[in-house]
Write a sequence for this structure.
């Protein structure tokens, strides 16, 4: 099983394989992942540690903190496929790639043809997912999934109804309870092909 980071930079998206015992992240050019364009990132901002069967992330006393799925971390945290990391103004997504030679079912990465089919959704759940993910195709370099209030307004339903649909979607996609669940759900929906970028662009026009 291998892992990589999807790094969003002004020039576009970059895929960075994770290897060795540790991978450093920061503004200084000597880092394994150098975010020299981002003045809000510390010279050595965070470190990814290889735990063997998994990877973790640790903040190195950075000026602006390290966020995992919207939550500021204060200690080392183990990463799961689809986790979103924010450092300064920069956004990264951690992916784990399943190796069929392992003979095990591990977490899989995003691909043109999703390796793991999405769960069966109702029409309304599908509408909520599209509304949740639509801001991800905006011109904002650091997009956030739609808020419950925004989704309710777009779908002409109550916020309570949106929250209920979201809870059903969290269950169907097995989204952990910690961190920002809307971010994880959006990433997981895109990874598994429940929502496509083309679909979001079409619905936004």
């Amino acid at each position: 099983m291998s892992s990589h980071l999807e790094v969003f930079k002004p020039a576009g998206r970059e895929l960075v394989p994770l290897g060795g015992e540790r991978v450093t992240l920061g503004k200084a050019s000597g880092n394994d992942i150098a975010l020299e364009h981002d003045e809000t990132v510390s010279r050595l901002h965070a470190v990814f540690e290889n735990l063997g069967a998994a990877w973790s992330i640790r903040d190195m006393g950075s000026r602006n903190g390290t966020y995992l799925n919207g939550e500021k971390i204060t200690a080392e945290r183990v990463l799961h496929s689809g986790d979103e990391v924010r450092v300064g103004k920069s956004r990264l997504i951690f992916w784990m790639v399943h190796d069929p030679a392992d003979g095990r079912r591990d977490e899989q990465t995003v691909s043109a043809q999703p390796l793991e089919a999405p769960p069966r959704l109702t029409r309304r759940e599908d509408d909520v997912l599209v509304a949740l993910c639509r801001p991800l195709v905006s011109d904002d370099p650091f997009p956030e999934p739609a808020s419950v209030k925004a989704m309710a307004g777009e779908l002409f339903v109550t916020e309570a109804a949106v929250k209920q649909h979201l809870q059903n979607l969290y269950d169907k996609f097995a989204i952990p309870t910690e961190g920002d669940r809307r971010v994880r759900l959006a990433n997981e929906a895109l990874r598994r092909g429940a929502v496509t970028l083309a679909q979001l662009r079409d619905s936004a026009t």
Notes: Helices lie at 123-133, 148-155, 159-172, 181-191, 197-204. The chain has five helices and eleven strands.
